Fold:
Amino acid sequence: MVLSGLAHALHDGYTDAIYVLLPVWRAEFGLDYVALALLRGLYAGAMAILQVPASWLADHVGGRAVLILGTLLAATGYALAGFSGGAMGLYAALLVSGAGSSVQHPIASSAVSRAYGAAARGPLGTYNFSGDLGKAIIPAALSFGLSVAPWRPSLWLLALAGIAVAVLLTLLMPRIEAAAPPAASGRATLQREGTGFPLLLAIGVIDTGVRMGFLTFLPFLLQLKGASQPLIGAALAFVFLGGAAGKLACGWLAQRWGVVAVTLCTEGLTALMIALAALLPLVPLLILLPLLGLTLNGTSSVLYGTVPELAPADRTERAFAIFYTGVIGSGALSPLLFGAVGDQAGPVVATLWTAAAALVNLPLALALGPRLARR
Structure:
């Protein structure tokens, strides 16, 4: 559990450190919003496309080995980004790093699910909480580094951190055991997966699209309101710390109040607070950001914890891989869509569109309720 959480913190920190770098790369290379969104999209796209192949590879060579190699590859991508001399070099480096990060979610989350069995919803929430700790710590550390040093050496230090985590996984992580096929007939389970799982995936796709679209524009909203580069990094840390608390709390709350009730609350509040974030001045916005982070990321913990309930026991890795393919693919494409809106109408209007998109999940969550397995 601890090592899975450490890997999650590193890879999620790598993923969201890109948001801190977007204004830096825009100033250095003169990129528009769509080109900036493509940087984030290539990283997320590589993660999305390789989720299922990563689970297949883990079946053949072992999840532990794939997780270690993926961590090394993600660190290598960040090192290459530090050596890049232009936008094309950044695109290639982020593809490499995203490919390395594709292995973490299906392998580590299925390992936690198998370790705790039917009681895995809460531990999966804790596992997701560790990812948001990485999102808070690594972007904040990078932002501080950018205030005292050029961005290239800062990326090389991030790469060294990834290598250190890979070494710890090599020395300390036990072998991840494969799950045995369930003794009972899998027909009912597969039927539940066929009806409930697509709805769960659709909610996850929209939720991730809203989150990634909003986070793409948050640094530029803060700039419009007069925030400095260190303050932008601190503001992102506020969001991710709130998100960490949301993932930790919402996984346990869903176990007590139900998936539908918690999802309706988090998605409705997310839409409201994103709209407020677009319109509020800087100081009230900074005060709002931790609570916005809580609801913005809380839904994902609820959804991840529901995947094992809608998948056969011997296909948990595959179900997680399919789910992460959808949500990370959404994270890759949605910034491009909202980026096009931002280029035409500005970051405030694009942010308001992300708030509207969050409301789509309300009827989907209501439709999912009858299809969930009764606990």
Notes: The two ends are 24 Å apart (CA to CA). Residues 21 and 307 are 33 Å apart (CA to CA). Confidence is low (pLDDT under 50) at residues 181-194.
